[in-house]
Write a structure and sequence with these properties.
By secondary structure, the protein is α/β, with parallel strands linked by helices. Helices cover 48% and strands 19% of the residues. The strands form 2 sheets. The chain has a 6-stranded parallel beta sheet, sandwiched between helices. Helix 2 packs parallel to helix 10 (285-300) and helix 7 packs across helix 8.
Length: 328
């Protein structure tokens, strides 16, 4: 009888130990699964080539890539192409050498980068574009916003300003960026948004400061004909225009409008009620980067078929009345 009791006790102990071991194993497995889902890009290396970090918007893009990438567990290699096609080509090729699992980039030379992209795609590395798309058909996806529409909406905004504040009359200076087709589309949209200009609204100069603040400042200084409005397709052009107007002691009735800005400098001009800087189209970098990282997560989860070929982000116009709600 005692032997039977001992055997039963031993069996019971073994059952308890087995149960505890199974519970621990399941708990450990459950923890691992949670950790993986919290870091869905763990073990992935993503190369990013930014257009130009001389623009504060791209500085904020860099910050968002680092923060959001780290939160998802990805190793982010982020580089500045400095608006140079040759530099960007070398960066993309180096991403391959560094064994990146995915490449994201804003095309500096949309038409000239195709051969490099063909080579990368041949190595089965997925490529995602943002801001400025390459002339190339095999992107996993492209994330941006409707640049033409931003120009149209700012054109309407400026036209309303001219009608209400300038008696329907104004001479306009436009700063564009010939190197960027999308920035040029902002300028074309702006003209459409102005509507029928008649003889009272004139575009007296359309120049390209090449996204350079100093060049924009010099161009403003050298314009001889009187003007009332400066419209720029990027913020460095706007900053240069404001700096020149301040240095010249120009009439505070001259206003600067920008079709792409974000960051501390942009918002300080609005917050401090700068007499020249009037309004800016805002595309928050955080939203754009989140869309890009969502694409990466879906792709590596095996859901590439669910990824749209284009993702458009929202935009807003910030001025001295509503800048607080859009402050970074």
């Amino acid at each position: 009888m005692r032997k039977i009791i001992k055997v039963l006790s031993l069996v019971l102990c073994l059952m308890i130990l087995t149960s505890l071991f199974t519970a621990c194993t399941e708990s450990s497995s459950g923890t691992a699964k949670t950790s993986t889902s919290d870091k869905p890009l763990s073990g992935k290396k993503i190369g990013v080539s930014l257009y130009y970090k001389g623009d504060e918007w791209y500085v904020n893009m860099d910050k968002e890539f680092k923060e959001q990438g780290a939160a998802l567990g990805a190793e982010m290699i982020i580089q500045d192409a400095n608006a140079s096609p040759e530099t960007q080509q070398a960066q993309l090729e180096n991403f391959v050498t560094q064994q990146c699992d995915m490449i994201m980039f804003c095309a500096v030379d949309p038409e000239g980068i195709g051969t490099t992209l063909d080579s990368i795609a041949g190595k089965n590395i997925p490529i995602v574009g943002f801001d400025e798309p390459p002339v190339w058909d095999d992107l996993v996806s492209f994330v941006a916003w409707d640049n033409y529409k931003t120009g149209v909406e700012m054109g309407k905004y400026v036209r309303k300003y001219i009608d209400e504040k300038k008696g329907g009359k104004a001479n306009i200076v436009i700063f564009n960026l010939a190197q960027s087709p999308l920035c040029m589309s902002r300028a074309e949209g702006f003209k459409e948004g102005l509507g029928d200009m008649g003889s009272n609204i004139k575009i007296i100069a359309e120049q390209d400061p090449e996204n350079n603040e100093e060049k924009a400042s010099n161009m403003i200084t050298n314009i001889k004909e009187p003007f009332d409005i400066v419209f720029t397709v990027t913020d460095p052009g706007a900053f240069g225009a404001v700096a020149a107007l301040e240095a010249m002691g120009a009439s505070k009735d001259i206003k600067v409008f920008s079709c792409g800005g974000y960051g501390e400098k942009t918002y300080n001009l609005l917050k401090d009620q700068n007499p020249y800087y009037e309004a800016v189209v805002v595309i928050p970098p955080a939203e754009l980067v989140k869309s890009l990282m969502d694409i990466a997560v879906k792709y590596f989860e095996g859901k590439a078929s669910e990824i749209p070929k284009r993702v458009d982000c929202n935009f807003e116009i910030a001025d001295k009345n509503n800048y607080k709600s859009l402050e970074p």
